Amino acid sequence: MMEDPCRRHQIFTRRRYFELWIHQTLSKLPLTKTLIIVVVVTILLFLIIQLFGLRQPRSRAIIISQERYPNVKAKSEEDSDEEVNDPSNNFIPSLTVQLHGRTGNMMFSYASMLGLARQFARTAVFPENHYFRMVFRITAAVPQRRPNRVLSWVRYAEKHPCTYDSRLANAGETAADVVELLGYFQSWRYFESVKDEIRKEFTFRGDVADRASGLVESAVKRTFGDQVRRRDVLLIGLHVRRGDMALYSSFLLGYTTASSEYISSAMAYFTERYNNSRLLFVLCSDDPEWCKDNVKESKTPIFQMENASDAVHLAILASCNHTIMTVGSFGWWGAWLAGGETVYYKNFPRPSSPLATDFLARDYFYPNWIGM
Asked: pLDDT tens digit string along 207-257?
């Protein structure tokens, strides 16, 4: 139905008279009073928007984008009804995650993806050729071929990378075919409900597990003699992360590295707590030279692991009884997979730094871990 031209003219005339009245009124006022009025009106409008909810609710997950992807091929006259209605072409609602960083960061992403997928009754999807499939016995589905229809795709972004984001609890409400998570999701709270499943997913494959086991057995024998076996020793995994975190640019962002005094105190804690046991500290680090100069034996021997891949180092840490971690997600996972007592460096991140605004200790460090 077309709009009445007379009605449209009346509205335009009234609007024009109102604009002229505002202009004449403000032109009669001094400049300072005019500016004050403009500022007051702007503040009032902002408060109205805040009070009456004309913005994204804080309790909702932020939707970054919603997209619809065209089908692989449109149905043509040559396509049979059997092919189009083939059950193999039905798309299963899925959840996936963008991957950032290195091993520890991606383990958080995978675990959180799996936890949220189970919560939302969706299928967790992970790249088919990702190297995790060669290291761990993960079972996440591979991306499906696009079915013979349009796919809807929604992306959700976390608010802070090292803080549990409760807004994501409603991410499962969408009817989109694919939910994609954007962020790091470095909080145990995303996957606590499926922690047993996560431990199975992060079971090391045979070659990695065998290499780690061989190195541990060798360390025990070289330290205590051929008559002592792995089962006779209480292993304390010690992971020292430095590398890029020791750079000044990282310090400005808020990253810190553990001091030699912290490491000595943590080692003394385990030595005193298990003074009736045969202990061995198994040291894995990305800076072995620093460790040689700064990590010193006292009453308990230290064996530094070298000449092994990151995956093997992680498997070694996971095979230990207890853990001393410094900083970084790699050491976090070594401690979590080991499952024993864990001592962590509590002076992370640097207070009042950009990283500190993204970090909440109770969401990042696992319950019952000991800060020192």
From this structure: 999 999 999 999 999 999 999 999 999 999 999 999 999 999 999 999 999
**Helix/strand/coil (H, E, C) string of 326-366?**
CCCHHHHHHHHHHCCCEEECCCCCCCCCCHHHHECHHHHCC
For 97, phi and psi rounded to 5 degrees? -145, 140
Q: Three-state SS for 160?
A: coil
Task: Kindly state the percentage of the chain with pLDDT values over 90.
Answer: 64
- Single pTM value for the model: 0.77
- Cα–Cα dist 180/120, whole Å: 13
What torsion do the CA atoms of 337, 139, 189, 365 make, to the nearest 10 degrees?
Answer: 30
Find out whether the peptide bond into 57 is cis, omega within 30 degrees of 0.
no
Please state, in angstroms and rounded to a whole number, the distance separating the CA atoms of residues 336 and 342: 8
The β-bridge relationship of strands 279-285 and 302-304 is parallel
182 close to 64: Cβ distance less than 8 angstroms: yes
CA distances for 311 relative to 135, 218, 282, angstroms: 7, 18, 15
Residues contacting residue 197 through CB under 8 Å, at least 6 positions apart: 114, 118
Cα–Cα distance, 248 to 52 (Å, whole number) = 45
pLDDT in tens, 317-336: 999 999 999 999 999 999 99
Distance CA 201, CA 332 (A): 16
350: nearest Cα among 238, 249, 239: 249
